[in-house]
Amino acid sequence: MAHSTPAKTRTAEPAQPTSMMSVIAPAVGWLIPGAGHIIQKRWIRGLLLLASIGSLFVLGLLMQGHIYKANGGDILDILGFIGDLGAGGLYITTLTMNWGQGAIAFAVADYGTKFMIVAGLLNFIAVADAYHIAIGKKP
Amino acid sequence: MTIQLTHFSAAFVFALFTSIVFGITHRETTRDMLRYGLYCFAMFLGGILVAGWAMWLVRR
Q1: Residue B34 contacts by C-beta under 8 Å, 6 or more apart in sequence?
Q2: Do residue A129 and residue B25 have CB atoms under 8 angstroms apart?
Q3: The whole model's pTM is what?
Q4: What is the ipTM of this complex?
């Protein structure tokens, strides 16, 4: 017991204030990659995120990658859907236009599928970053 | 419209864009973002080259 920390010395983590921006920035950032940063006046970061995530997704599509729809089947299909969903507006547009539905006929097309999944996952990270900026955890 | 990238160019593009996002989201100052982005890019490409040569050795 000699090494136990007295309860009085523990300090509670200060509660993060919930502002409107901490809700809007992640939502907008999910819908349009990088927009969560742009509306917080992080112009260069936002534009770089938009260019990177957007390019990765569009390249995946142009490489005839496959887009996953909501499904309750194979675990890899479910994970693929979750990854794709992260791309937000890009994913919604792709589904609406019925793109990315072709059969994968060559190896590079499979890379395209992975490009789109990774673009979605990177957008999840960008959304979390936009939230951290909104609550003042990151400059 | 479709495009056909080679294996290496696909890996290069992937490494480039992923490194940019990692650099921006994982560091706080501009200098650190740049350094971390370059580090990730080098690791991605270095890993690809090492893995490629390893597979070539295994195949022989």
Answers
A1: B23
A2: yes
A3: 0.88
A4: 0.93
